[in-house]
Amino acid sequence: MSLANDFFQLFLGSDIAHGTFVVKSSRTSDGKKQGTAKVIKEPTTETMWEEHLKGGTGLGIIPIRSDNTCSWGAIDIDEYDVDHKDLVSQLKQNKIPAVVGRTKSGGAHVWVFINQSIEAADMQRRMAELSAALGYSGSEIFPKQSTILVDRGDTGNFLNMPYHAGKNSTRYAFDENGEGLTPEAFITYAQKFVITPNKFEKLNFSFGVAQDLLKEGPPCLQHLCSKGFAEGSRNNALFNLGVYARLSDEDNWETELARYNMDYLKPPLSHNEVGTVIRQLKKKDYFYKCEDQPIKPFCDKEVCKQRKFGVGPNGVSNDLSSLTKIDGDPPIWILNVDNQRVELTTSGLTAQAQFQRECVAQINKFPVMVNQRAWQTRIQMLLDNVTVIEVPPDATFKGEFEDLLHAFCCERAKGEEREDILQGVAVWTENNVYLQIKDIKKHLTVNDFNHYSSNKVTLRLQDLGAEKMFWRIRNKGIHVWYLPQAYFQTEETQIPLPNLTDDNII
């Protein structure tokens, strides 16, 4: 078996599409290359992997398949200062069969491989738990979707693959000692970590955290109380512990908070500092500061929602992620909303009220309204990382219009004299084809194409290179548009017929 086939089998993904990243010349302020994630609706092949390993077209694999299953998952840690050896050490120490890789930008990928397909939702859930345990909550999880809208052209998002350019790649994996692996060594190493679905489900991601610590409380606080709070984060830590104390023991929460300070904060805060936090919490009903340090890196939102003294089912804002643009005319947008796929028009994506209505209609959720500036910022961040799926030209309004224009000019009666244009037909001269806007509009309507106004038809003709001129016919002035005949001339493919004889005629 070839090396390319080994990679192909290990990272077996979507059966309908793969991805690539089209790089632009400029970079972002943090040094990352700008570009567009582009999905190509063709399944991955061994030949594509060969090209990838040679340093040709880089390959991105979509983990989720059309039946909403997958056989591998990944955590994408987009931090340049990530300690790869520490990640390897944490996984080894806690007996987690996962492989750590370096991304091109210096971040990390953590892969888990399964020997059978499992539900993408199960892979997502468990990889999110692992991400939180490692202290990298908020990192992207692959597969990004638990389900995809295949009938709408949805494919899911891809992850850039390691070992582009083989041994010369900056995207490589590490062994259990934190040393870089060659492509061949990586395959041997990764294959040792392939596990069954049953073993994957039973993996313990508690990392030594006592589950009875802060019973029914947020996993992030349980983790930090077990491992320790950093000195610079103690005030925020005590505030969040205070929120838990008020929820879990309303009558004795102040005493409990003082105890938490002594037990879990090293060194503990002073008596005056504890008093300041207590007075702050007495003013009103505060909630956990999920987006702040020190708890953010260890956030496990889905687990926390189930805890009696966690955030609750409505305690966090809606999670919007994984925006996909099906680049038709008009475009269709597909967005993850709390891990469910929602199909949107451009208005549905940009206007909050319409967005809410679509979520209610499609996934039975009513998203929380935010202020307009926050909404615009949120959508722009999604657009900055949008995945584009190109569609065939004939599947767009533009393509359909051009087909109907061709039919109007070429498949109907043709005029030869200027006067003929008054009969509602296209007039063919030696070099050009002439028509009126009202006549092509009528043709579009007859064929149930009602997507373009007269102005839009005019714009489309201009896009095709058509020009406008004025004719006078029977003392009447009319405006006509014309295109060169060459526009309508297409090379016909000749299909050779077999030589038939009496012997092969049935």
Structure description:
The protein has helices at 3-10, 46-54, 84-93, 120-134, 183-191, 197-202, 219-227, 234-248, 253-264, 271-283, 301-306, 346-350, 352-363, 372-384, 397-410, 437-446, 454-463, and strands at residues 18-27, 33-40, 60-61, 69-77, 99-102, 108-119, 140-142, 159-160, 320-327, 332-337, 340-344, 387-390, 414-415, 426-428, 432-435, 467-473, 476-484. It is an alpha+beta fold. It has 4 domains: 3-202, HP0184-like (DNA primase, PRIM domain), CATH 3.90.920.20; 219-306, no CATH class; 320-391, no CATH class; 395-488, no CATH class. Helix 1 (3-10) packs across helix 2 (46-54) and helix 1 (3-10) crosses helix 5. It starts with a helix and ends in a 22-residue tail after the last strand.
Task: Give a topology summary.
Blueprint: H1 3-10, E1 18-27, E2 33-40, H2 46-54, E3 60-61, E4 69-77, H3 84-93, E5 99-102, E6 108-119, H4 120-134, E7 140-142, E8 159-160, H5 183-191, H6 197-202, H7 219-227, H8 234-248, H9 253-264, H10 271-283, H11 301-306, E9 320-327, E10 332-337, E11 340-344, H12 346-350, H13 352-363, H14 372-384, E12 387-390, H15 397-410, E13 414-415, E14 426-428, E15 432-435, H16 437-446, H17 454-463, E16 467-473, E17 476-484
Parallel strand pairs: 2-12, 9-12, 13-14
Antiparallel strand pairs: 1-2, 3-8, 4-6, 4-7, 5-6, 9-10, 10-11, 14-15, 15-17, 16-17
Quick rundown:
The chain is an alpha+beta fold. The chain has helices spanning 3-10, 46-54, 84-93, 120-134, 183-191, 197-202, 219-227, 234-248, 253-264, 271-283, 301-306, 346-350, 352-363, 372-384, 397-410, 437-446, 454-463, and strands at 18-27, 33-40, 60-61, 69-77, 99-102, 108-119, 140-142, 159-160, 320-327, 332-337, 340-344, 387-390, 414-415, 426-428, 432-435, 467-473, 476-484. The protein has four domains: 3-202, DNA primase, PRIM domain, CATH 3.90.920.20; 219-306, no CATH class; 320-391, no CATH class; 395-488, no CATH class.
